[in-house]
Design goal:
CATH class of the largest domain: Alpha Beta
Transmembrane segments: 24-46
Pfam families: Glyco_transf_8 (PF01501)
Number of strands: 10
Structural class: alpha/beta
Strand content: 5-15%
Shape: elongated
Organism: Populus trichocarpa (Western balsam poplar)
Number of domains: 2
CATH superfamily of the largest domain: Spore Coat Polysaccharide Biosynthesis Protein SpsA, Chain A
Pathway: Glycan metabolism; pectin biosynthesis
Largest sheet: 7 strands, mixed
Helix content: 40-55%
Keywords: Cell wall biogenesis/degradation, Glycosyltransferase, Golgi apparatus, Membrane, Transferase, Transmembrane, Transmembrane helix
CATH topology of the largest domain: Spore Coat Polysaccharide Biosynthesis Protein SpsA, Chain A
Length: 562
């Protein structure tokens, strides 16, 4: 029994030892495997690091990768090498910052060239420092140990340069930031200015279209008047000749227009302010398209006070043909037609300065009729020329009593200071203009002119006009319009009138004194903002609308909105 018991205890102990022995063998095996893996990994990393050093070129590392490679393993890292990499990285970072500020300075075109040179020198010093032979051989030679003394000197020089760079950057930062803001502001202003110039061109072109296009109400009025004539031809038979149209003892007016409502307002304003309206004779000339409408208007609404109104079409004056009139001859020129009638919208927006002169009205015969007054009215001695955009506020008979001193044209001068001189209307770079005229001579206004027709004939002014107009076929003497040839034709034959006779600018100048306007005999809506248009200036519009015949049925029908 005892043996059996011992045998049993011995067997039990052997069972336990038999279980533990494989367990410890397994642990030793696993430990050995991990040890081998660790040694293998270490060996691979070491060989890779060693291989990198053998293939390193002589130049200084250009990024933080060198620092990572040299210091990847603490066991193999060289403290001096690590320190060198950190110093170099610091130098490289500051060199980049210095170059950035130098680039800003060049972009902003700053007037601080001394500071810019210092930035360039700092960047160059930082670049050249590692390339010095003493540093290159002792610090950056592959495979060679780092000389601590040389490293210390290298570190000192780098820190000195970095210190200077930091001081300069701190000093310049605020200034550069402000300069960048200023430059951005300038760029914004430039961009906005470009948009403004474009908007002005488009606005000027739109204003030109508004001013020169026929308003719907005016077109409606002309159509209604023609319709009336067609519907009732018996009412509008041609009237016989009246001797008053050639009586030189009466007060004669020349009005050339294709605008029915404007002519009506003008004549009504003259008659209502005339002391003896029955002595006033109006010679109205229009084009073939509007002559019927004009005649119907004045037959339906006769002028008050016994004044006389004669209406003709410009085509009725047979002597006005292309063989005699330079303007008509020039209109037959292909280049002139191209200038006026091809791509007007495109040309206008490209050339805003000359845009208004590209309007064909400046070569229309109605616009140039003023140069043929003696031939149109051969029996008259004096005649008052009025534009259709004027309003008369006083009796004008005093103009016939003004002594013109033997001159042809009585007009109000418009010059003040250096403005409205001949130099602004004529091309004084042309030898003919330079030779014959004074650039400082004072200009005067068309729109209200008293002409002595006898003096005109004596001075042969129409021949002078033909001579100069023919020379200007290529627009080398003046641009266009009737004022420049008028200034030339009547250069030495114009008598200056008192300014109260004729006040100008109501079609473009909002700053005219109301006292000046109320004292004027004639007010002139020269400019784009004509009083019959929606774009008219409100402060002046009522001075024109009060003479509109609102009792005329077609004015109401066509909704003038006056």
């Amino acid at each position: 029994m005892a043996l059996a018991a011992r045998g049993t205890r011995g067997g039990g102990s052997g069972g336990i030892n038999g279980g533990l022995r494989p367990f410890f063998s397994y642990r030793i095996f696993i430990s050995a495997i991990f040890t081998l893996l660790f040694l293998a990994t270490f060996s691979i990393l070491f060989s890779s690091h060693h291989h990198h050093h053998h293939h390193e070129d002589d130049s200084l590392p250009s990024s933080g990768n060198a620092y990572v490679q040299r210091t990847f393993l603490a066991v193999k890292s060289d403290p001096l090498k690590t320190r060198l990499d950190l110093i170099y990285k610091q130098a490289n970072d500051h060199m980049t910052l210095v170059n950035a500020y130098a680039a800003y300075a060049r972009k902003l075109k700053l007037d601080i060239s001394k500071q810019l040179r210092m930035f360039d020198e700092l960047a160059k010093n930082l670049t050249d420092l590692p390339l010095k032979p003493s540093y290159k051989s002792s610090l950056f030679e592959p495979g060679s140990p780092v000389d601590e003394d040389v490293l210390r000197q290298f570190e000192k020089e780098v820190k000195d340069i970095v210190k200077v760079a930091r001081l300069m950057i701190v000093e310049s930062k605020e200034s550069y930031d402000n300069q960048i803001k200023i430059q951005k502001l300038k760029d914004t202003i430039f961009a906005v200015n470009e948009l403004l110039i474009k908007a002005k061109k488009n606005g000027a072109f739109a204003s030109l279209i508004s001013a020169k296009s026929v308003p719907k109400s005016l077109h409606c009025l002309a159509m209604r008047l023609v319709e009336e004539r067609v519907a009732h031809p018996e009412k509008y038979k041609e009237e016989g000749y009246k001797e008053e149209f050639e009586d030189p003892s009466l007060y004669h007016y020349a009005i050339f227009s294709d605008n029915v409502i404007a002519v009506s307002v003008l004549i009504r304003s003259v008659v209502k302010n005339a002391e003896e309206p029955w002595k006033h004779v109006f010679h109205v000339v229009t084009d073939r398209m509007n002559v019927a409408a004009m005649k119907v208007w004045f037959r339906m609404r006769p002028v008050e006070g016994g004044a006389f109104v004669g209406i003709k079409a410009v085509e009725e004056y047979r002597f006005l043909n292309s063989s005699y009139v330079p303007v008509l001859r020039q209109l037959e020129n292909a280049n002139m037609q191209k200038f006026y009638f091809e791509n007007q919208a495109e040309n206008a927006t490209k050339d805003s300065t000359n845009m208004k002169f590209r309007n064909p009205k400046y070569l229309s015969m109605l616009n140039h009729l003023r140069f043929y007054l003696p031939e149109m009215y051969p029996k008259l001695h004096k005649i008052l020329f009025l534009d259709d955009d004027v309003v008369v506020q006083k009796d004008l008979t005093g103009l016939w009593k003004v002594d013109l001193d033997g001159k042809v044209n009585g007009a109000v001068e418009t010059c003040f200071g250096s403005f409205h001189r001949y130099a602004q209307y004529l091309n004084f770079s042309h030898p003919l203009i330079k030779e014959r005229f004074n650039p400082k001579a004072c200009a005067w206004a068309f729109g209200m002119n008293i002409f002595d027709l006898d003096a005109w004939r004596r001075e042969k002014c129409t021949e002078q006009y033909h001579y100069w107009q023919s020379l200007n076929e290529e627009r080398t003497l003046w641009k266009l319009g009737t004022l420049p040839p008028g200034l030339i034709t009547f250069y030495s034959t114009t008598k200056s009138l008192d300014k109260s006779w004729h006040v100008l600018g109501l079609g473009y100048n909002p700053s005219i004194s109301m006292d000046e306007i109320s004292n004027a005999a004639v007010i002139h809506y020269n400019g784009n903002m004509k009083p019959w248009l929606d774009i008219a200036m409100n402060q002046y519009k009522n001075l024109w609308t009060k003479y509109v015949d609102n009792d005329m049925e077609f004015v109401q029908t066509c909704n003038f909105g006056l």
